[in-house]
Amino acid sequence: MSVWNWSDRYSPTVDQDLQVTLGEGQTACVRSRRIGPALGIKNLYFKLESTNPSGSYKDRFAALAISHMLQREQNTCLATSSGNTGAALAAYCAAAGIRCQIAVVETAPLAKLQQMMAYGAEIQRVRGFGTDSAITNLVFDRLQQLAAQPQCELQISAYRYSPLGMQGVESIAFEIEAQISDLGRSVDHVFCPAGGGGLTLATARGFQKTSARPAVHCVQPEGNDTIASPLRNRCDQATDVQCTTSISGLQVASVIDGHDVIACCSKSKGTGYTVSDAETFEVQKRLAQEEGIFCEPAGAVAMAGALNAFRSGQLDPEATVVCIVSGSGFKDATSIQQMNQRSRCELVDVDDLFQPLTMRS
Predict the structure, then answer these.
(1) Which CATH number is 3-56+163-340 given?
(2) With contact defined as beta carbons under 8 Å apart, do 98 and 76 qualify?
(3) Nearest Cα to 196, choosing from 269, 253, 245, 277?
(4) How far apart are CA 94 and CA 88, in angstroms?
(5) How far, in Å, CA of 196 to CA of 260, rounded?
(6) Which ranges carry the Tryptophan synthase beta chain-like PALP domain (predicted)?
């Protein structure tokens, strides 16, 4: 398979000895074995960003962001997070010996908070952060003030705040192009989950630097529709909302990279899709039980959008479609408990083990 080197591609100015890496990138792009064929989508693929070191695509961002901090001899990373950014930054700060302080959205799952603390990060949840756009903007303003000191750097996984780190996320596009090309095909559509829009924007910008020209689509929960509907309705501006979705990681009520997402997706001939929380949880379950892909709800949003696009006749069955699976199922224990609520794990004696044995036909 074709390979790339992130330091050569994005930041040749970073000294080789100061690059912080935990083995991020080069994630698999696997073909659907059951969902796609059952629906008649012949070339459906999943880009498994859930297999990065801390469990999400945010490791691509953190690797580059923290390497730049190390080169500038900065010793304190300030950040905001709904979970995955914080976990990634905490991991790479631990590797680099940099202090990490994170303002976390109020509704962040416990598993993500535990992961950040395990890496040694200092974290605080903020009331209303992530669901109220006014409070969310105040948090950003407050952290920008705190990060004015030379030894500090504010790291938010959005081009608006951390353009150097976000260049690392563009590597997703390079890998998809190489992986699909190695199969003798070209990629036609890429579906991306979006909260603030950074992943979608990075993917679209990454493809602008390749020979591939897929339509890049933005998929959002209905309860955080800052970008998808404006994009679909051919507006050029995203909009703040009062966030009501329960999908962790995509609760970003304010416009961050939204305007640029609309411009880049439109240029790629992509559009926007919204999906309900119920649809998302159902697709999360289907990915686990039909494809063997264990993802958090946010990681199922892109596939939910692709299903809606296909069912409404907007995808050619012959097209090559890639859905980004952004984070691991281990990130959100509550959603997994909900998925398994009808399953049982009984304690039995050895003589009763799977008796009577029922053979599948």
Answers:
(1) 3.40.50.1100
(2) yes
(3) 253
(4) 10
(5) 11
(6) 20-327
Amino acid at 303: M
Domain boundaries, the chain: 3-56+163-340, 57-155
Q: What is the CA radius of gyration of the chain?
A: 20
| Complete DSSP assignment for 248-307 | TT----S-SSHHHHHHHHHHTT--EEEE-HHHHHHHHHHIIIII---B-HHHHHHHHHHH
Instruction: Identify residue 161 by its one-letter amino acid code.
Output: Y
CA-nearest of 208, 213, 191 to 200 is 191
d(CA 1, CA 56): 22
Which residues are paired to 327 by β-bridges?
A: 56
* DSSP state at residue 231: H
Can you read off the two tokens belonging to residue 150? 């030379």
Which fold, 57-155?
Answer: Rossmann fold (3.40.50)
Q: Which residue type does 172 have?
A: I
- Specify whether the backbone of 97 is left (phi greater than 0), alpha (psi in -120 to 50) or beta: left
Question: What is the DSSP-derived secondary structure letter of residue 214?
Answer: P
Residuewise pLDDT in 10s, the chain (361 residues): 333 454 455 454 566 777 899 999 999 999 999 999 999 999 999 999 999 999 999 999 999 999 999 999 999 999 988 789 999 999 999 999 999 999 998 888 888 899 999 999 999 999 998 778 788 889 988 998 999 998 999 999 999 999 999 999 999 999 999 999 999 999 999 999 999 999 999 999 999 999 999 999 999 999 999 999 999 999 999 999 988 999 988 988 788 899 999 999 999 999 999 999 999 999 999 999 999 999 999 999 999 999 999 999 999 999 999 999 999 999 888 888 889 988 888 888 888 888 776 666 5
CA 303 to chain centre: 13
- The torsion angle over the Cα atoms of residues 223, 335, 193 and 94, rounded to 10 degrees, is 120
